[in-house]
Amino acid sequence: MGRCPDPAVSPLVVHDARDLKGWVDRVYAYGFAYGVGEHSDAHWGDRFGEGTLAGKRAMLLVTTGGWEQHYSARGINGPIDDLLFPINHGILYYPGYDVLPPFVAYRVDRLDQAGFEIVAERLRGRMRTLATTAPIPYRPQNGGDYQIPSLQLRPELGEAGASGFALHLNSAGLAD
Q1: Which one-letter DSSP state was computed for residue 34?
Q2: pLDDT digits over 103-124, tens only?
Q3: Do the strands 12-13 and 2-3 form a parallel or antiparallel pair, or are they unpaired?
Q4: Is 83 inside a domain boundary?
Q5: In this structure, how many other beta carbons lie within 10 angstroms of the beta carbon of residue 132?
Q6: Phi, psi torsion values for 3, nearest 5 degrees
Q7: Domain assignment present for 153
Q8: CATH code, domain carrying 63
Q9: Residue from 137, 133, 62, 58 nearest 99 by CA
Q10: Quick one: CA torsion of 31, 34, 35, 38, rounded to 10 degrees?
Q11: Residues in CB range of 61: below 8 A, 6 or more apart
């Protein structure tokens, strides 16, 4: 894992799945990343938008061998945001990170030098905006959108019969 030289941003940088698992094993300790905060009829712990890592930012940088279309709503793999939801929401947002939209590079196994330079420049541009990029607007757990203690989204939120990961996005499109 690496660290950004700018301490104001201090993003988590993970190079591969083994690094991510190792980081989770080291950081997700009871009383630090989970099991913190009050548990009552009005507040269900400091997590999903709250917690010890609140105010810090995290972003996934993902490479695929598949085409971008393969990771779309009608693509064989499904939307990339759905595939990344368990990591973005369940691992990063859980202890309070402001989770930035992922940087995804597609078909990296087919990149020639010119293609690599294009992806590298896109990444450099993205890294320059880490401090100003709007986070994914997930609904905070204790912000009133979820019933406590069931943690079910309130029935009046979202369209009738709707389900799926998108329900956990703030309908106003703004992170709280």
Answers
A1: B
A2: 999 999 999 999 999 999 999 9
A3: antiparallel
A4: yes
A5: 7
A6: -130, 150
A7: no
A8: 3.40.50.360
A9: 58
A10: 110
A11: 13, 102, 103, 105, 123
How far is it between the farthest Cα atoms of the chain? 57
Number of domains in the chain: 1
**Distances 122 to 37, 70, 87, 115, 119 between C-alpha atoms, Å:** 39, 20, 23, 11, 5
Domain that holds residue 118: 2-135
**Rounded Cα distance, 145 and 86, in Å:** 20
Q: Which residue has the tokens 């991510």?
A: 20
Q: Tell me the torsion sign for CA atoms 89, 91, 93, 94.
A: positive
User: What six digits make up the tokens of 118?
Assistant: 């294009």
61-80 pLDDT, tens per residue?
A: 999 999 999 999 999 999 99
